[in-house]
Amino acid sequence: MRIARYTTGEDPTYGLVDGAGDKIAEISGDPLYSKIELTGRTTTVDEVRLLAPVIPRSKVIGIGKNYAEHAREMGGEAPTEPLMFLVPNTAVAGPDDPVVMPPQSQRVDYEGELAVVIGRMCKDVTPQEARQVVFGYTVANDVTARDLQKSDGQWSRAKGFDTFCPLGPWIETDLDVSDLRLQTRVDGEVRQDGTTADMIHDVWTLISHASQAFTLLPGDAILTGTPEGIGPVEPGQRVEVEIDQIGVLGNPFLRR
């Protein structure tokens, strides 16, 4: 089941997207908190503006260096346990929203990632229990001000600017995430081409590890790390992250 959040110019609403990604059947309420019920109204994806499929009410949890080759390109070995950081929910943007490159940074990078959306409150879950707390999966771009990441010595500012966490285009609720191809393209040129099978710590381990530190709430998102091939974006370029069986998340980058 694919769940989109969108607007036709009025208040945001939710809908079920068909398998072709063309049509949306409106549902009532927020599917994170209420039973999915169709309203009978339908539209097409082309007729609406897709929004970030979830705005985490609490937090976005990032995972650093979860692919060995990416850890090496960053100049070190992968950590022995998941490396976590927090991103404010104000960083979340949706499909086609511009990523605004801040004047404080001279190098802003893309990082295509699989994102997990938590479906119910949980704490101290095991990897075996983790599957039962997942609402679904979406595509993320963990945008990073690389120069500030290095100069600050920690990652909050570098990854937390407004618009630096695009999510979309929708949430896929029924998916085997053990081996999904992930591509990141800049103006159509492939820059990252990896698979979730190369994660050092799998999705269930990441959820369990995060829940040992934080109570996870419905709508929280966990970004699961990026494959090798990170690089800078120039103003005016468009970045697309595509994950098999989910879809394509595209955003223009600009300076104001």
UniProtKB/TrEMBL annotation:
Residues 1-53 form the Rv2993c-like N-terminal domain. The keyword Hydrolase applies. GO terms for molecular function: hydrolase activity. InterPro entries: Fumarylacetoacetase-like_C, Fumarylacetoacetase_C_sf, Rv2993c-like_N. Keywords: Hydrolase, Metal-binding. It comes from the Bacteria. The keyword Transferase does not apply. Pfam families: FAA_hydrolase, Rv2993c-like_N. PANTHER family: ACYLPYRUVASE (PTHR11820), ACYLPYRUVASE FAHD1, MITOCHONDRIAL (PTHR11820:SF7). This is Fumarylacetoacetate hydrolase family protein. It comes from Luteipulveratus flavus.
